[in-house]
Amino acid sequence: MTADERAQIRRLARDVAVEVYGPLAEEMDRERLPISLDQRRRLGDLGFLGIAHPERYGGAGAPLAHALAVIEEFAKVCRPAAFQIFEANTGPAQVINHLGTEEQRERWLPGIVSGERTMAVAISEPDAGSAATDMRTAAKPVDDGFILNGGKRWISNGGEADQYLVYCRLSDAPGSKGIGALLVESDMAGVGFGAPERLMGFRGIPSADVLFDNVVVPKENLVVPAGDFGKLFGIFSIERLGNSTMSLAIAQEALDRSVRYVQEREQFGKPLVEFQSVQVTLADMVLQVEAARLLLDRAAEGAGTGLPNPLHVSLAKCTANETAKRVTDLAMQLHGGNGYTEEYGIERLHRDAHGWAIAGGTPAMQRIRIVSELLGRKFDQRK
Ligand SMILES: Cc1cc2nc3c(=O)[nH]c(=O)nc-3n(C[C@H](O)[C@H](O)[C@H](O)COP(=O)(O)OP(=O)(O)OC[C@H]3O[C@@H](n4cnc5c(N)ncnc54)[C@H](O)[C@@H]3O)c2cc1C
């Protein structure tokens, strides 16, 4: 795909998002409703769920940057719909794409690309968040597969997804060395879900604990064996770019709405934009959004159809996450009382901004990765 084609797909995404999904966004948030199967299939029919997947599984085989452009346009107006595009293109399906066997790719990717099925990623546990390698969920090898026990927390699409890529202990080796990943179907015996979480934002994106009680997982569902945790987290960089894009979209939307508002709203007999402190606030918002966009573009361009540079990813994620929180806060300030109402949607942007900054590794953890990449050494958080 060329740059022209990317601009074209961005325009198409913008039109569909605004016309079809935008009008549903407020209700999804208010009622905590995810998008329906039909609405997801429609995203598949339009080709949005397979942009960054190979053509032989129904995808477009396009660079990651194309998928990110579509995610951005959707995330500006309807984050529950954008989440589906994010998860399909940059989520656990990329682990299948990059690390799965040919048989696994053929088995699982077409369903995700068409929107028929969704796959969530299950890493975090009640006592293993930032310290993901403290996870205890474990799969015991048996003759023809594994017996999986444990539980995961904060799983986006938990209870809603058909499949879960479960990071778990596959051997007795300590820390990251014993961790790999299994594909678990939601209807396997022994898979259960906690009550839906009532999150501050992310309200059209279900979240729940995912629990495993002696789940028999066939050996064909082993995606990443113990010892390949480094590779697994290498692929997770793609998800972090998707996450950064969600944050950038939120910030851009808050900025765009503020630009319009300060020119329309009058106080003291003139538009707000005529006041110098409003100009300075707006300039601060532009500075942050543009910086986040450039860092994200660099990381995405560098990835092509492969893996991004981890330093570039952490720089982009940290900046985009923090930009989204700050810029939505400033947008609320510029909107005055209207910004604090649900009607104007600014508070929804602000609530969602906080969620994306925690998901996928907090800005504090990204900062540690930045220094680690910069100096070419690891910092053991346990010593
Ligand atoms: C909206 C949302 C969606 C999510 N979706 C998923 C999902 O789909 N799948 C999944 O597996 N997980 C998901 N998560 C979980 C997410 O990955 C974790 O919440 C995140 O990694 C932080 O872990 P924690 O919540 O346990 O916080 P903690 O690790 O307890 O951190 C608390 C605070 O301490 C700081 N901190 C911790 N360790 C250090 C350190 N060494 N140095 C400096 N500061 C430190 C953190 O930065 C943070 O500010 C989601 C979370 C949210 C909020």
From TrEMBL:
UniProt domain Acyl-CoA dehydrogenase/oxidase N-terminal: residue ranges: 4-116
Acyl-CoA oxidase/dehydrogenase middle domain mapped to chain residues: 120-215
Obligatory cofactor(s): FAD
Residue ranges annotated for the Acyl-CoA dehydrogenase/oxidase C-terminal domain, each copy included: 236-373
SUPFAM superfamilies named among the record's database cross-references: Acyl-CoA dehydrogenase C-terminal domain-like (SSF47203), Acyl-CoA dehydrogenase NM domain-like (SSF56645)
Keywords of the record: FAD, Flavoprotein, Oxidoreductase
Pfam families for the chain: Acyl-CoA_dh_1, Acyl-CoA_dh_M, Acyl-CoA_dh_N
Family designation: Belongs to the acyl-CoA dehydrogenase family.
Protein name: Acyl-CoA dehydrogenase
InterPro entries: Acyl-CoA_DH_CS, Acyl-CoA_Oxase/DH_mid-dom, Acyl-CoA_Oxase/DH_mid-dom_sf, AcylCo_DH-like_C, AcylCo_DH/oxidase_C, AcylCoA_DH/ox_N, AcylCoA_DH/ox_N_sf, AcylCoA_DH/oxidase_NM_dom_sf
